[in-house]
UniProtKB/TrEMBL annotation, chains A, B:
Domain Aminoacyl-transfer RNA synthetases class-II family profile: 39-333
Statement: the UniProt record of this protein carries the keyword Glycosyltransferase: yes
Signal sequence coordinates: none
Stated name of the protein: ATP phosphoribosyltransferase regulatory subunit
Biological role: Required for the first step of histidine biosynthesis. May allow the feedback regulation of ATP phosphoribosyltransferase activity by histidine.
Record carries keyword ATP-binding: no
Subunit structure, interactors included: Heteromultimer composed of HisG and HisZ subunits.
Annotated organism of origin: Paenibacillus solisilvae
Subcellular location: Cytoplasm
Pathway: Amino-acid biosynthesis; L-histidine biosynthesis; L-histidine from 5-phospho-alpha-D-ribose 1-diphosphate: step 1/9
Amino acid sequence: MSKPKVFEKPIGLKDYLPHAVTKLRQIENQVLACMASWGYEQIMTPTMEYYDTVGVASATSDQKLFKLLNNRGTTLVLRSDMTAPIARVVSSLLKESQFPVRLSYHSNVFRAIEEEAGREAEFFQTGVELVGDASAEADAEVVALAIASLKAAGVERFKIAIGHVGFLNGLFGETLAGRSEEQEELKGCLLGRDYVGYREKLRTLSLEAPVQRELEGILRLRGGQEICEQALQLSSDATAQSSIRHLCEMWDVLAAYGVCEHVLIDLTMIGDFQYYTGMTFEGYAADLGFPVASGGRYDNLLKQFGRPAPATGFAIKTTRILELIGDGAGDKPEQERILIGYDVSGRAAALTEAQRLRDSEAAVIVTEKMDAAAQLTALRSAAAAANAGAGESGKVLYKGVAFTKLLTFFTDNGEQDGAAK
Amino acid sequence: MSKPKVFEKPIGLKDYLPHAVTKLRQIENQVLACMASWGYEQIMTPTMEYYDTVGVASATSDQKLFKLLNNRGTTLVLRSDMTAPIARVVSSLLKESQFPVRLSYHSNVFRAIEEEAGREAEFFQTGVELVGDASAEADAEVVALAIASLKAAGVERFKIAIGHVGFLNGLFGETLAGRSEEQEELKGCLLGRDYVGYREKLRTLSLEAPVQRELEGILRLRGGQEICEQALQLSSDATAQSSIRHLCEMWDVLAAYGVCEHVLIDLTMIGDFQYYTGMTFEGYAADLGFPVASGGRYDNLLKQFGRPAPATGFAIKTTRILELIGDGAGDKPEQERILIGYDVSGRAAALTEAQRLRDSEAAVIVTEKMDAAAQLTALRSAAAAANAGAGESGKVLYKGVAFTKLLTFFTDNGEQDGAAK
């Protein structure tokens, strides 16, 4: 509990400098515009919510919630996702709106973290919720929109892996009836993608050979539409069967959207949110070890807020995409940056010209106190360098900042409008 | 400490529904674009900061800070402004950058509130900081940019009132030397704009008649450039005199910017942030009782973060402007909203057309499970109403949502591309 140094910020939290902000804002705007074009309307909710309502309903484990007390002594949390707050809004402010309701958001969310390297305590998500539609068509719409959103964000090579909570529940319920602890252990292995651990765990369970083969077999259930056919043979459990039929229907709709090249059915997949009740999915970018999008169906959450309704949605992990697309990818053409130097007599003309240029989309910086001899000299040499074609990629450097153009308004010395370049 | 109801959110916090978000985003984008055109680059900082660094340096009183503990037991605060976090960044991540540094932000900030009507615990600010320039020119630049930003936000009628911390400090130091308690009481009256209280307080101080007149006289020091001339006569204190000369210089620069019609010198003004050291200003919109922008010079804050530098800046109270500009003002032309209904056989054609329309900037909603007879009927009657020119302002209403156009792809019944309207 040592006192922090003045320049420090708390662990797991980041500053974003202008270059990163430009990129993050670009991803945000492009993804939100994509979601708007699919009819999803943006909402915003408070950073803080009641622990007893949204905090408890969220999928985040209790020890990962940031908690604080308000003036009345009631416990608040910093939101850990946007799904539970949106469920609250749909059940209160929007309770008169007819289903289906389509909402989008871009928001920071919070997770109290152990001090592990690289974990973030605050990060951005951009996502949608489609509330009031239980159909496979609705699930396919959010998957297709996730694909369109990742493309809008500038992610080029990625796969969406789709699974179904009901398949594993049905299969395990049938083969390991009454052995809920072992079921949870196996699910834990799958959630962590620890397939070696899963096989080892299976061997310790003394299962009959056909059951053992069946449960090992699901590790191979990854691929295209053919996986659905295979899975229908694997389990006769009613829940498992209807889950697979739901995924088959989704596949047909995704085929109509023309996006199956990005889709993979992966029946070992378990969403990491406890509120998922149906299909779940994750988006993986090429060469990246962690998902850049995740989503699923949560048909039981809304009733916790008093308006029972099926719902499905996803979130893109915007901050991770920022790391992924790196420098250069999808950059807008650079704005013209103009430096205007002036002395007192040239001031009015300089500031008028600055305003004219700003109105025409350029970024203009006017220099302070240009009557100081030293600065005048600096500016003149910068101008000379620019005229001579010197400077970094033809730019004018002034006080460490690169400009595309330099204009001067020095009238005290008989000069005027000495534009360089 | 009663348990909150499921639909409740904590006091002082707001949800923003789509219509409000559209407006808020529009103000945000237009103001940030304006700031960018003046060469200010956007940064983002974390929601949480250390209490001992940024928390203590911020101008917010201790009991108005939201505090929480991290896993190590260190006290964190939710940021109460962006000025102190930016001072931290300029002194750490940006410590190699040459002055002046121009930064902008759009951010939510937090204030723990008593449960007063209408007070907000979280609200948005859009602002700039100009660090490393002590000149009147720099102060005039931020005032001129505040004016340009308010215009960009859609505020049409407003005044910026400019004062100077040094004038009142100098005047009171000269006339009420050693009576710091009385000085603070008088400043408190001015801060609250309680001019009656100020006069009453003066009368209780048993001052000599000329001094009494002098201190009453400042209440009349509101107006244009002529106020500077009058104020120079009022006090011979060196601090007061140099403060007034600084305001005179600012006025000259603001005249060159051509914005004096929006500016008022008001020497009774005291900024409500304790870190202000020089000129301070507030922006008042017509017919509104509270400021929509505030700013000032804070030359002592940066040294608390280890990189002493003069600085000046302002913040627009974005959320208040949202209330101010109301409905309709500055709205973008409405996006075309198209509803596409289809049955299973028409699905592929419908979804392909939806994608084409989304690419051409329309918002398109495709209807779920259109083979249900009831929904088919609803859609057909909506189409019929649209064809007959009925419906709200020529729009198609479907499930409570208005669309500008309806397209159907029902091929099972031998119809295709039955576009209405």
